[in-house]
Amino acid sequence: MKKRIIRISTGIVVILTIAFIITFNDHYKESVMTSSTTLSNTKIGWGVKRANNNQQPDLGATNIKLMEQYNGIAMGNKDKKYVYLTFDGGYEAGYTEKILDALKENDVKATFFITGHYLNTAGEIVQRMVDEGHIVGNHTVNHHSMPDLSDEEIKQEVVKLQTAVYEKTGYEMKYIRPPKGEYSERTLAITNNLGYTTVMWSFAYDDWDEAKQGRTEYGKEKILSNIHPGCVILLHSTSKDNSEILDEVIKKIKEMGYEFRSINDFER
């Protein structure tokens, strides 16, 4: 009887040991595969080579590859005249309310990527964005280039803003735009692991420069001549020109046969 008990006990120990080794190895492999230290941290600055005649631009082979690999959003289906309107807002310059008015007037839902400074100084406008059905995206707390930060610093920049927005508005963020359009494979992996979808763009112009306002005709021409199927539009809510031309531009784009869609309904 004793020998049998010893054999059974020994068998159980062996089984448990094997199970532990398998579990440990699986966990180890997963950790190695997902470790950001194994991924490239080469800084990539997002760039777009514009095309003519409202055709899709060239986003670059590396950009396209990484967006596909990490399920990012940059440009939609080339055969469907859908456009996706997004805004970056590092701070409130006094124009977002007018932009929101134009969006409401034209029944268009946009995505606003905000920073910690924006939330802290214009919380009531963020609440209006949420109340009117717009998407509020994460542009990090301090707008630092993410490849320059450690893994933990990136997590803090993203999660602290996410938590603050939720506490103030009850809104749960799920989209992120890397500050300055700078990213790396490492940073994409980190934000993906935090549950975020990265949103870049296929059209932008130099609307962010406060010294270059007062060019409304220039702004309209740039936007309307570069709209294309699947266009992810990046505008800055800090631009006075954008606030003045947005209503007309939206109407013109619709007249061109395009449909404005939320990035929640993005089609590849």
Number of helices: 9
The name CATH uses for the topology is: TIM Barrel
Strand content: 5-15%
The profile of the biggest β sheet is: 5 strands, parallel
Task: Explain this structure.
The protein is of the alpha/beta class and 268 residues long. The protein has a single domain (57-265), classed as TIM Barrel (Alpha-Beta Barrel). 46% of the residues lie in helices and 12% in strands. The chain has helices spanning 2-34, 61-69, 96-105, 116-121, 123-131, 151-169, 185-193, 216-226, 240-255, and strands spanning 44-45, 82-89, 111-114, 135-138, 175-176, 182-183, 197-198, 231-236, 259-260. The strands form 3 sheets. Strands 2, 3, 4, 8 and 9 form a 5-stranded parallel beta sheet that branches. The protein has a two-stranded antiparallel ribbon with strand order 1-6. Helix 3 packs parallel to helix 9 and helix 8 (216-226) runs parallel beside helix 9 (240-255). The longest helix has 33 residues, at 2-34. The chain is globular. It starts with a helix and ends in an 8-residue tail after the last strand. The model is unreliable at 1-34 (pLDDT under 50).
